[in-house]
Design brief:
Layout: E1 22-26, E2 35-36, E3 53-56, H1 59-68, E4 76-82, E5 87-88, E6 104-107, E7 111-117, H2 125-129
Antiparallel strand pairs: 1-4, 2-7, 3-6, 4-7, 5-6
Length: about 130
């Protein structure tokens, strides 16, 4: 009995890829489904209204983000999906590091919180102070 080859074909128009998920390190208390948006107080510097929001594809860069964020809240790392285009973070790309080895990005479009990394190892106090 010969099997119909069309039974094994992937229905391409209905196939959708998974969205790239990134990390966002902060001290903000967010919930699943929340949106991280521009216009809120920045995690860093003078706490001005953020013109961009930042994320990274590496856990280590997100850990740094959580550890260096201003505020008294608990350090948190969220899984986030961009809702619009992202670009290389020019504060790091080709300035502090050649290329973009930290895989750090920014956007003016919201990021949707889709999860949280609850177990991670932070840097030593000496590293954070340096």
């Amino acid at each position: 009995m010969e099997k119909n080859k069309s039974d094994n074909k992937l229905n391409a128009p209905n196939a959708t890829p998974f969205s790239q998920t990134f990390f966002h390190g902060t001290k903000a208390d967010l919930k699943l489904g929340d949106y991280i948006e521009v216009g809120l107080n920045s995690n860093y510097g003078q706490k001005n209204k953020a013109k961009y929001i930042y994320l990274t594809a590496t856990l280590d860069a997100a850990i740094w983000g959580a550890e260096l964020a201003l505020g008294a809240g608990r350090e948190r790392i969220y899984l986030a999906e961009p809702t619009g285009p992202i670009e290389d973070d020019p504060n790091l790309t080709d300035k502090k590091f050649p290329g973009n080895p930290t895989m750090s990005y920014r956007s003016k479009h919201p990021f949707k919180v889709v999860g949280e990394v609850t177990i991670w190892q932070g840097h030593s106090a000496e590293q954070v102070k340096a």
